[in-house]
Structure formats: structure tokens, C-alpha cells
């Protein structure tokens, strides 16, 4: 069934105009963008399979044009480049929101941002959000790659970057590709080490957020800082 064959009230565009974009499912939203499917596969099936292949919009955010090209129906340069551009606009919009508002007053925006940046990665990445005195985002920087139990995170590098940016505080973040967001002993030890190191230059650790696909944990909210 094509979009045009649906009853008017069930068509994604009409639902969006009447109820807003939030009323659409992920599949409907992507189908609205794709507009048409391919031979033997309607646009809704194609959208659903695309979301499953890349594990949702968060995965699509990280998909390159070359990766999208491997998906049947996304081989055309126009559709593929448009999707990459739209997803990049979403990422930049969220970044802009964090630079213009107080990060600590927008915890959900921070978690959504980190979900987009980290949750779908197959390897562990340790990143830092550097904040100004008003808790606005100065810079997001992935700094170390690999399991925290195997790859050393150098506090001096975090401190050096904080000084260079004139940061007043930081939010630490990393992903757990295995799916659990429970902090390990290595996570706890690293957090304490960074707290102590950054305190020497009057930079405070505001939070340490662990993300996995579809979930997150804030150490500050759990009383672990």
C-alpha cells in the first residue's frame, strides 16, 4: 500500500499537519521523508527495515552515505544525500540548543544528545562536554576510544582541554556497547580521579552519564558523584 492509498486521516503528512510531528511513529516519519518505496516494497516497509537495519534514528545519525548506499532503495544520490543532510540538521539543532541554554536545566536534551552521539557506536568512547560558568556547552569532544578498563583516560588531557576552552565545569560521558548502563568499578574510579584532577584547576565535574541503546544513567541523579 502506498501513502496515496491510505485514508486521508492516516496519511503521515495529514497527521503531521493536524496533530504535529510528535503524533507520527518513527516509521511514519521516515516514510513521509522517503515518499516512495521500491518495486515489491512499499514505503512503510522500506522505512521500517531501514530503521531496523540502522537501529533507529540514532543509528541513522551515524550512518555514512556509503553505508546507506548498501541499503536497497537508497542507492540514488539524491535521496541518500537528503537523508544525511536532514539527520545532520537534527544533530546541529540539538547542539545549538545546548550552546544557548543552561545544560544542567535541560537534562533530557543532554541525554538525547549523548544518545545520538554515542549509543549506537560498537566501540566504547569516552567523551567530555565542556561547560562555561553558566553551564552552557562550549564544546563536545570525544577524547578516548576503547574499553575504560583497557584504554587509559588521561586526566591531564581533559584538564588541558578544559583550560584551553576556559571551561568552568564538565559533564563526562561514555557508552556501554554491551547494553547495560550500570557503572563498573572502573567507571567509578575514573570519575573520582577526574574529579580530583579537575578540582586542582577549579573545574567541577557536573555529571557522568553512561548511555547504551535506548537507555542512560546519570551518576549525579543516582547520587554517585
TrEMBL record:
Q: Keywords in alphabetical order, please.
A: Hydrolase, Metal-binding, Metalloprotease, Protease, Zinc
| Family, per entry | Belongs to the UPF0758 family.
Indicate whether Cytoplasm appears among the record's keywords. Answer: no
Which organism is the protein's source?
Answer: Limnohabitans curvus
Superkingdom as given in the UniProt entry: Bacteria
One GO-annotated biological process of the protein: proteolysis
SUPFAM superfamilies per record: JAB1/MPN domain, RuvA domain 2-like
- The keyword Zinc appears for this protein: yes
Pfam families found in the cross-reference section: RadC (PF04002), UPF0758_N (PF20582)
Q: What is this protein called?
A: MPN domain-containing protein
List all membrane-crossing ranges: none
Give the InterPro entries listed for this entry.
MPN, RadC_JAB, RuvA_2-like, UPF0758, UPF0758_N
Listed GO MF terms? metal ion binding; metallopeptidase activity
MPN domain spans which residues? Answer: 103-225
Gene3D superfamilies assigned to the protein according to its UniProt record, in alphabetical order: Cytidine Deaminase, domain 2
Amino acid at each position: 500500500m502506498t501513502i496515496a492509498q491510505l485514508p486521508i486521516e492516516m496519511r503521515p503528512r495529514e497527521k503531521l499537519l493536524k496533530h504535529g510531528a510528535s503524533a507520527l511513529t518513527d516509521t511514519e516519519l521516515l516514510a513521509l521523508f522517503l515518499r516512495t518505496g521500491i518495486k515489491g516494497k512499499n514505503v512503510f516497509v522500506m522505512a521500517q527495515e531501514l530503521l531496523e537495519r540502522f537501529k533507529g534514528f540514532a543509528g541513522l545519525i551515524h550512518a555514512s552515505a556509503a553505508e546507506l548506499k548498501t541499503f536497497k532503495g537508497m542507492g540514488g544520490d539524491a535521496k541518500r544525500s537528503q537523508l544525511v543532510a536532514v539527520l545532520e540538521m537534527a544533530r546541529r539543532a540539538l547542539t545549538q540548543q545546548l550552546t544557548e541554554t543552561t545544560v544542567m536545566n535541560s537534562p533530557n536534551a543532554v541525554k538525547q544528545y549523548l544518545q545520538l552521539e554515542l549509543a549506537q557506536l560498537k566501540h566504547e568512547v569516552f567523551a567530555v562536554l565542556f561547560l562555561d560558568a553558566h553551564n552552557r556547552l562550549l564544546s563536545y569532544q570525544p577524547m578516548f576510544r576503547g574499553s575504560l578498563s583497557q584504554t587509559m583516560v588521561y586526566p591531564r588531557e581533559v584538564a588541558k582541554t578544559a583550560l584551553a576552552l576556559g571551561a568552568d565545569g564538565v559533564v563526562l560521558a561514555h557508552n556501554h556497547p554491551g547494553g547495560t548502563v550500570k557503572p563498573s568499578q572502573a567507571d567509578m574510579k575514573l570519575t573520582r580521579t577526574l574529579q580530583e584532577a579537575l578540582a586542582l584547576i577549579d573545574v567541577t565535574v557536573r555529571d557522568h552519564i553512561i548511555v547504551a541503546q535506548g537507555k542512560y544513567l546519570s551518576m549525579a541523579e543516582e547520587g554517585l558523584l
